[in-house]
Amino acid sequence: MTSYVSHTGSVVRYVDAPNLSISAAGTTFAYRDVGPRTGVPLILLNHWGAVLDNFDPRIVDGLATSHHVIATDYRGIGMSGGKAPVTIDEMARDTIALIRALGFEKVNLLGFSLGGFVAQDITLKAPDLVRKLILTGTGPAGGSGIDKVGPVSWPLMIKGVLTLRDPKFYLFFTSTDNGRRAAKAFLERLKERKADRDKGPTPEAFLRQLKAIKNWGQQAPQDLGSIRIPVLIANGDNDIMVPTANSIDMARRISGAQLVIYEDAGHGGIFQNCADFVPKALSFLDALSPDFKSEKKP
C-alpha cells in the first residue's frame, strides 16, 4: 500500500486520516486531508451519494505521495451539515466557499461523475481559482444521456439488493471477467477503513442529488471553450451512467485537453485502472503548461 510522510513526520494513509470539519457558506463541511502541505492542493469531488469513505484509497494515497489532497462531503451528505442542493450551481458555489475557507487561493480539481459536473462549474465560475482540472467518468451540461442516470441506475440498484452486492458492482464496471474482478477489488478497498467511518447518505439527500444530476443533463450547454487551463479527461470505453461519448465531446470542446479512454472499463474506469491512472494524473499535475512557463511545480 502507498504511504507518505505527513507534515507532522508520521506516515498516514487515507484510511487512517482523521475526520475534519470547517464552516463555509453557513454550513459545516466534513473533509479529510492527506499528503505534504506544500504546493497547490488537489480537491477531490466525488459521485452521486458518495461520502468520504467512497474515495478510492489507492488513488488518494497515490496522489498524496507528492500532493496535498483534500476529499470533501457535499452539503447535506455524510457528516456535512445542511440540506443537499438540487443544482450543480449550488454545489459549485459551496465548494468555492469551502476552498476559500480553507485559505487556498489556487487549487487543482479532480471530479468524478457528479464531481466532474461540479468541477467544470467551479472552473467556469472562478477561473482564477483553478490551476489544473481532471474530469473522470463525467460529462458536460446538457450532455448525452445524463438526464437518464436515474432510469439507468434504478434497475441495477435493485439488482444489487437482490444479489446482495453493492450497486457499484454493476454501475461502475463492465460485466466481463476483467470488470468483475476489478469491481470486487475496488469494493474491498472501500472497506479498508475500520474506525471513524462517514455516515451514508440519507434517502432524501440521495434523491435531491439525483435531481441536480437531471437538471445538469437538461440545462443549456456551457462554453467549455472558455476553459484555458490544462485539462485531463479519463473514462472507460463502456460507461453506462455518463456515456463515454461525453468524455470525447468535452475533449473536443476544451482546447488542448488530454483524453484517456480505458478499454473494457465502465464508469469507474479510473478505479479499475488505478495503477495506470495515478501516474498519468501525477504527470499531468506536475507538468509545466506551455502557458505557464514561470510556474513552479508544487
TrEMBL record:
SUPFAM superfamilies linked: alpha/beta-Hydrolases
Gene3D superfamilies documented for this protein: alpha/beta hydrolase
Organism whose genome encodes this protein: Bradyrhizobium hipponense
Domain AB hydrolase-1: 41-272
Protein name: Alpha/beta hydrolase
UniProt keyword list: Hydrolase
GO MF, one annotated term: hydrolase activity
Top-level taxon of the source organism: Bacteria
